[in-house]
Design a protein that fits this description.
The protein is 35% helix and 27% strand. The protein is α/β, with parallel strands linked by helices. The strands form two sheets. It has a six-stranded mixed sheet with strand order 6-7-8-3-9-10, with helices on both faces. The longest helix has 16 residues, at 167-182. The relative contact order is 0.19.
Length: 234
C-alpha cells in the first residue's frame, strides 16, 4: 500500500531523512522505532506532505505522492494523527469530529459517521457535547484518532500515540489498534513505547540517523534486546 524509497527530507539546512526505505502492506500494523531525533516523526510528516522540502519516492496505492499537497494525499485515503494531537480549542468533541469529514469526497451522513465513532470510542460517546480541550490527555488522543478514522482512510499514520497518557488508556488504545487491523485498517505506528508497539505490530523498522538500520518481523525484534538497546533506548 505504501512504499518509501530513498526518501529524504530537510528542515532548512538540516538534512533529517537520509534515504528512508520502508514498505507497508495492506492490512498490516507496521511500527517505526528509534531514539528521539532519529527521524521518526519526520517520516510520516514527509509522507503526508507536511515537510517544506523532500525528495525520493513515496508511492501510495501505486500513486506518486511527492509534489501533491497534503489535502490531496488525504483525499487518496491517507490520514495522519500528529504527536501534538491538535484538538481545536473552543470546539466540542462532536464539532472536532465533524472537521474530519469536511474534505471527504461524497461526504457521508454526519450523524451516522459520528455515531459510529462513538461506538468505537465509548469514552467519547459520553462527552460529545463537552469542550474537547477539557478532556484528559488520553481522551484527547482518542478524539484525534477518531477524527482521522471518521473519513474512512485506507492507511492511518500515528505519531507517538501513547506519549503522556495514563497506562490504562494506553492499553485501551493499543487494543483498539488490533481491532482496527482486524477490520481492515492499515496502520503505520511511530512509537517510543517499544514493548507495546512490538506486541501489536506485524513488522518493525528501526530508524537511526535518518535512515533505516534494521527491518524484521516484530516477533524477531521482540526477541532481540541487543538491537532495542542499541537503537531504541532513550
Amino acid at each position: 500500500m505504501l512504499r518509501l524509497a530513498g526518501l529524504q527530507a530537510w528542515y532548512g539546512a538540516s538534512h533529517v531523512l537520509q534515504g528512508v526505505d520502508l514498505d507497508v502492506n495492506r492490512g498490516e500494523i507496521v511500527c517505526l522505532l528509534g531514539r528521539n531525533g532519529a527521524g521518526k516523526t519526520t517520516t510520516p510528516k514527509s509522507v503526508m506532505g507536511l515537510m517544506p522540502r523532500a525528495r525520493g519516492s513515496v508511492l501510495f496505492d501505486g500513486i506518486d505522492l511527492l509534489g501533491r499537497p497534503a489535502q490531496a494525499r488525504f483525499r487518496l485515503g491517507l490520514a495522519y494523527v500528529p504527536e501534538e494531537r491538535r484538538i481545536v480549542p473552543g470546539l466540542t468533541v462532536k464539532e472536532n469530529l465533524r472537521l474530519g469529514l469536511v474534505a471527504v469526497a461524497g461526504r457521508p451522513r454526519e450523524a451516522a459517521a459520528i455515531a459510529e465513532m462513538a461506538e468505537i470510542f465509548p469514552r467519547l460517546a459520553e462527552r460529545l457535547d463537552q469542550v474537547a480541550v477539557t478532556l484528559s490527555g488520553g481522551e484527547q488522543q482518542m478524539l484525534a484518532i477518531a477524527r482521522a478514522l471518521i473519513a474512512k482512510p485506507k492507511l492511518v499514520m500515528l505519531d507517538e500515540p501513547s506519549e503522556g497518557i495514563m497506562p490504562v488508556l494506553v492499553d485501551e488504545m493499543f487494543e483498539l489498534f488490533v481491532r482496527l487491523r482486524q477490520q481492515g485498517v492499515t496502520l503505520l505506528l511511530v512509537e517510543q513505547n517499544v514493548a507495546l508497539a512490538l506486541e501489536v505490530a506485524d513488522r518493525a523498522y528501526v530508524i537511526d540517523g535518518g535512515a533505516i538500520v534494521h527491518h524484521a518481523p516484530a516477533s524477531e525484534l521482540r526477541a532481540s534486546p541487543e538491537i532495542q538497546e542499541r537503537y531504541c533506548s532513550v
